[in-house]
Amino acid sequence: MKSASFIFALVVGILLTSSSTKHEYYVSVTNIEYAKEQQSVQIISQIFIDDFERLIRQRYDETITLAEEDEPEIVDEYMKRYLKDKLKIKINGTAYDFNYIGKEYKDDITYCYLEIENIKNIKSINVVNRILFDVLPDQQNIVRLKLLNKNKSFLLISENDECVLNFN
């Protein structure tokens, strides 16, 4: 089982770290971890820059180019608004809004940093991830949960965009 997880992680890593601007696969990876000392759920969503740019151009402003030195400040607002619309998280049955911390670009990936504060304990987590499903029909979203000594990965597609992890 560990070798299958390793191979899966290797394939995803190769897909997300390729240096070309064109790619055959439409995939994002969202890592969700619980930081017990900070009592926060920390989230990093990795989305190909060109896919995110395509979405922002279609939805908000067709003149936007991401990862440019003179990128308009409004880009952060567009990303925040979009992620809040497409990424939903419930903890212990209660829906939470996350704080958009910011983003950075590395190679051809946008890293979006998000956080949910004041989480004292987790009995269950429910994640709905619809990122890019509205512009890319073949989009797949990997959700990796690392919470309370449990690691679990889910592959979400437009027909199945939700995952749940219980800690009982």
Detailed description of the structure:
This protein is of the alpha+beta class and 168 residues long. The protein has one domain. 24% of the residues lie in helices and 41% in strands. The chain has helices spanning 2-17, 49-59, 74-86; strands at residues 27-35, 40-48, 87-91, 94-96, 99-106, 109-117, 124-129, 140-147, 150-156, 162-166. The strands form 2 sheets. The protein has a 6-stranded mixed β-sheet with strand order 5-6-2-1-8-9, sandwiched between helices. The longest helix has 16 residues, at 2-17. The chain is globular. The two termini are 23 Å apart. This is Peptidase E. It comes from Winogradskyella marincola.
Characteristics of this structure?
4-stranded antiparallel β-sheet, globular, single chain, 10 strands, DUF6702, disordered N terminus, Peptidase E, 6-stranded mixed β-sheet
